[in-house]
Amino acid sequence: MGDMSNSDFYAKNQRNEGNHAAGFGCSVMELRSLMELRGTEAVVKLQEDYGGVEGLCKRLKTSPTEGLAGAQTDLDKRKELYGKNLIPPKKPKTFLQLVWEALQDVTLIILEIAALISLGLSFYHPPGGTGGESCGAAAGGVEDEGEADAGWIEGAAILLSVVCVVLVTAFNDWSKEKQFRGLQSRIEQEQKFQVVRGSQVIQLPVADIVVGDIAQIKYGDLLPADGVLIQGNDLKIDESSLTGESDHVRKAADKDPMLLSGTHVMEGSGRMVVTAVGVNSQTGIIFTLLGAGSEEEEKTEKKVGTVEDGHQNTVKKPDGAAAMEMQPLKSAEGGEADEKERKRVSVPKKEKSVLQGKLTKLAVQIGKAGLLMSAITVIILVLFFAIDNFVMQKRPWLPECTPIYIQYFVKFFIIGVTVLVVAVPEGLPLAVTISLAYSVKKMMKDNNLVRHLDACETMGNATAICSDKTGTLTTNRMTAVQCYVGDVHYKEIPDPGALPPKSLELLINAISLNSAYTTKILPPDKEGGLPKQVGNKTECGLLGLVLDLKRDYQPIRNQIPEEKLYKVYTFNSVRKSMSTVIKLPDGSFRMYSKGASEIVLKKCSHVLNEVGEARVFRPRDKDEMVKKVIEPMACDGLRTICVGYRDFPGDPEPNWDDENNILSDLTAICVVGIEDPVRPEVPDAIQKCQRAGITVRMVTGDNINTARAIAIKCGIIHPGEDFLCIDGKEFNRRIRNEKGEVEQERIDKVWPKLRVLARSSPTDKHTLVKGIIDSTMVDQRQVVAVTGDGTNDGPALKKADVGFAMGIAGTDVAKEASDIILTDDNFSSIVKAVMWGRNVYDSISKFLQFQLTVNVVAVIVAFTGACITQDSPLKAVQMLWVNLIMDTFASLALATEPPTESLLKRKPYGRNKPLISSTMTKNILGHGVYQLIIIFTLLFAGEQIFDIDSGRNAPLHSPPSEHYTIIFNTFVMMQLFNEINARKIHGERNVFDGIFRNPIFCSIVFGTFAMQIVIVQFGGKPFSCQPLDLEKWMWCVFLGLGELVWGQVIASIPNARLRFLRRAGQLTQKDECPEEDVNEENEEIDHAERELRRGQILWFRGLNRIQTQIEVVNTFKSGTSFQGAGALRRQSSTTSQTQDVTNVSSPSHVSLSNALSSPTSTTAATAPPTTGQC
Questions:
Q1: Range with the lowest mean pLDDT among 598-612, 1058-1072, 1160-1174?
Q2: Using CA atoms, how far apart are residues 820 and 815, in angstroms rounded to an integer?
Q3: CA 363 – CA 1161 distance, rounded (Å)
Q4: How far apart are CA 436 and CA 896, in angstroms?
Q5: What are the residues whose beta carbons fall under 8 Å from the beta carbon of 425, sequence distance 6 or more?
Q6: Where is the composition biased (Low complexity) (predicted)?
Q7: Are 518 and 269 in contact (CB under 8 A)?
Q8: If we measure between CA atoms, which residue out of 707, 758, 710 comes closest to residue 732?
């Protein structure tokens, strides 16, 4: 459990028991046992042992109304005694552990073994002077050079370069982990909670909450600590994260006052006294129990189980709460139940992200080709050597020559492995990670806090955005601009004297009392600014109306404080209204009600007239009011709120639980038109989206006229276009059949034209998102982004490909269900996210284009060179250096290109478009041809051109030749200049465009060039290099520069000529099955998807992703280096057919090695490219 083991905690607690909690009236253990009770048991225990909640507050030295005084010494004492509100995080991996992990790479292990054998054998000399002759060609020329002593250098150099690769990989992982932890703590600092201290309500970071604090809880909160309810209104809690019960639990101070950390407030509001924090809270205790299994953490699915009543539950994690810095671990007891549970629970799954699916496939395809080439290379070399020595020259195999022969074989083996190393793109996962991590870091500046790494890249493929209206498209500063009081429609807020005094009095009271007391209007932060609105914005608009009418709401609230409110019916998505009951001095009751005008007016039977007297309100009056008042307001883009009241007799007391009768027969006081102006930058952002091929739809709870008016202002709809604006009722009528079931065909008729969905319920939003995602009528599967802020948006956010939660207005529940948090609640930040997402995709493509060119050339050169001259023109160490520039440095240079506006001028790529476009294929082949021509010319005619000794057919251990050095140097120069070409992948001509905006790129290119000079001039034997003079250097650079010219030539060839090779890395239809078909027996599902969950795991998921990507390369290498390709085929034929389906539709980071064993990708990879059906 991180740095402190459980025993430390308990030991501390035990020590404090003795002196009864150092002056406080209850110890940690007493509070812990109290919190384990539920319902009436808890109420009885509180009464008996503590004298009720008040008694508990006294013992904890806190006031139920004023809270703690907030003196620092007192707070520190409480923290020391009752613990801090956080759970110590798991220790990060040390650098050495990361080095050890990097060393596990199979290719590196093979290289190390080969290098060690080569080292060992280089020190062996055959006995007797004659040995040399009798072993024939094998030892020829070695002694004469006096170089035999230098035989060890190659082995040592390979080992050294392996060390370099390992250190670079480990350092990358380490910095990545550091970044994730930074982001994680940022997410945690974001979460604040309302606490009363010194009778002031303040926002406090969750980690600073202490035992004895009085916390204010409201709809949408995620509770940061355990507590006992002091007073609550209509409070309902979702405790499924702890108990697994999905029904909401009603909480009341006299029935069930126990509130537990990590649970969600689904309705109502209230105040609680905090009794347990951090490891002593209920969620904390569970995590401490699970702490025992921390070593297994890597292997377990990131999933937490608590075992209660012998039945396995999953624990949902609270989002970003510093309170719960928990690592998910597997409970020891939960292990068995775990397996069974897994099959039973149907999991809402996310598919592998688009890019990942394509990359997995590509990596497997490339890996296989590389393996094949390296195997053939080794076989040809060995055969050639054997035939030449033992058949052609009829030499006997002498025992004393064996080590020399073995040395040759080891050399061949090393060449083979190097071909493999160069062929397999280890740089891919690295490029993806760097690109994503870099984007995520930069997106922070653009107000996007990314919680799931892959969301960033998925966003680049988005084809539809379903956006909320309030706060996202609008400023979320509600101001009342029109009202209808006493039969008069005022287009501006009237002078208070113009209103009937009775109506005015009722209106002021109705607004002041019937709104959350946490909603306030505070003076502006800076001079001349607008007043600060705190709490629910609609209520702020109404309170603003009170202030505009020259009255103040605060004295009225002070007169009737929150605890004196008799009954509160809080706002929820079903009621769409809020009502508060107060007891009048004469013992009778009055209920104030407010809500959406069409809903509240339906319940009104009277209305106040011009003198403030109630008159009968007939149905035809209602229709007239709707036509004359409500519709004109709505057409101006106003939200209409109706305020009403009703009086009840004190005797007999009404049955408050009979909501339908209570909330009827109201008297309307007034209708207020509230404006929420469109954010100035939104119309421009929406236009950019539409240009980029993304459809923006508005889904709002407002009425249809308001919604349409705002949609026109935003530019979502343009007059004269063919589009649909419908409300929830009409939407449901169109998409449901007679039985009331949703039908996909019906949704398909609606969604393509739908632009505005008004008066929609959360279920409508979810139905719409699901309908668009599951639709098969368009050839590309739609990728949908959704914005949401309310608790009820959770399901839609979870279902969407990318869920955006509002950082300011959003509830904790919404943030927890989301992938990206918009820290400024602004729609234009979503456009930035699209830009970054597309940039990630392009960066990977740039890297691929560069990498594959090098791969193709290096493999072909090593292969043909080996077959013709028995020695690869590029030596093992040189290949490793090339691999280092290609993989590590190039991924850094190309993955950090900043995005440009031009990214938004093209349509999304879509899921079925191959990763390697035809333009890229053309570039790869074109540059490959150029490089091969140059290298082979140098290899076979270089000695004549430069008038130097030929380096071909040199014996073992001969000194490096100038000839081969020129080939190596030219090869590297061509790569360097091709890296500049790779900056553009859409066939643009100006490859230098914006090159200085990317300092990393420039420094890497110059750095590599400098290193190359050092290697060639001073590398000597280890790098098999002979220093070159200036003229030869100029030639090498000149041939490299040719790449840039050749790039322009390639850009002139039209793509239409290159119909073949279209489909590398394409996802075939078969890989893309809908999620419903997944066979539930399949164990390969990653359970991280199972729960909505807190930020930090999401970051670890990033790390996981990288491991999996490297795994593919490893699985592939290990599966083949030892068993040969046959094993692969066997494996694939025995794989059950069910895996076909799960390949892509399982959660976003399925172990990529499945892809290997699944028939789909195996066949797709080995068969000719035509298998990808478009």
A1: 1160-1174
A2: 8
A3: 11
A4: 9
A5: 363, 366, 848, 851, 852, 855, 887, 1113
A6: 1157-1174
A7: yes
A8: 758
Angle formed at CA 422 by CA 363 and CA 162, multiple of 5 degrees: 110
What amino acid occupies position 912? N
Span 218-246, pLDDT tens digits: 887 888 888 998 888 888 888 877 777 77
Q: Write the single-letter amino acid at 1148.
A: S
Contact yes or no for 1036/973 (Cβ under 8 A): yes
Report the distance separating Cα 962 and Cα 948, nearest Å. 7
497-500: Cβ within 8 A, 24+ apart? 499/549, 500/608, 500/610, 500/611, 500/612
Which residue type sits at 58?
K
Decide: helix, strand or coil at residue 800: coil
Copy the structure tokens of residue 393: 């020259």
Q: How far is CA 732 from the centre of its chain?
A: 32
Give the pair of three-digit tokens for residue 167. 């250190």
Q: Could you tell me the two tokens for 629?
A: 């008042």
Helix (H, G, I), strand (E, B) or coil at 683: helix
Give the per-residue pLDDT at 1163: 35
Give, as one character, the DSSP assignment of residue 426. T
**Buried b or exposed e, range 411-442, using 16+ CB within 10 angstroms:** bbbbbbbbbbbbbbbbbbbbbbbbbbbbbbeb
468 is catalytic: yes
Distances 907 to 691, 694, 904 between C-alpha atoms, Å: 8, 8, 8
Residue 1079 has pLDDT above 60, yes or no: no
Q: How many angstroms separate the Cα of 52 from the Cα of each of 229, 693, 696?
A: 11, 62, 54
DSSP annotation of 71 reads -
The pTM of this model reads 0.67
Return the H-helix or E-strand segment holding 1103: helix 1095-1121
Residues 382-397: pLDDT tens digits? 888 888 877 777 777 7
Going by C-beta distance under 8 Å and a sequence separation of 6 or more, which residues neighbour residue 905?
Answer: 691, 692
Give pLDDT, residue 849: 86
**Among candidates 1126, 493, 447, which has minimal Cα distance to 820?**
447
What three-state secondary structure class fits 496? helix
Q: What is the pLDDT of residue 254?
A: 80
Residue 67 three-state SS:
strand
At 234, the amino acid letter reads: D
What residue type is 230 in one-letter code?
I
For tokens 């699985």, what's the residue? 1115
Q: Which residues pair with 194 in a beta bridge?
A: 203
Phi and psi angles of residue 495, each rounded to the nearest 5 degrees, phi first: -75, 135
Side-chain-facing half-sphere of 148: CA atoms under 13 Å: 14
Exactly one of 468, 702, 1071, 1086 is catalytic; name it: 468
Q: Which of 439, 355, 320 is nearest to 833 (CA)?
A: 439
Q: What does the pLDDT read at residue 166? A: 80
> Using N-to-C axis directions, what is the helix angle for 962-981 and 1030-1052, rounded to 10°?
40
> What pLDDT does 8 receive?
46
CB atoms inside a 10 Å sphere around CB 1122: 10
Percent of the chain past pLDDT 70, that is, above it, reads 75
> Tokens 């190659």 label which residue?
154
- Which helix (H) or strand (E) is 715 found in, with range? none
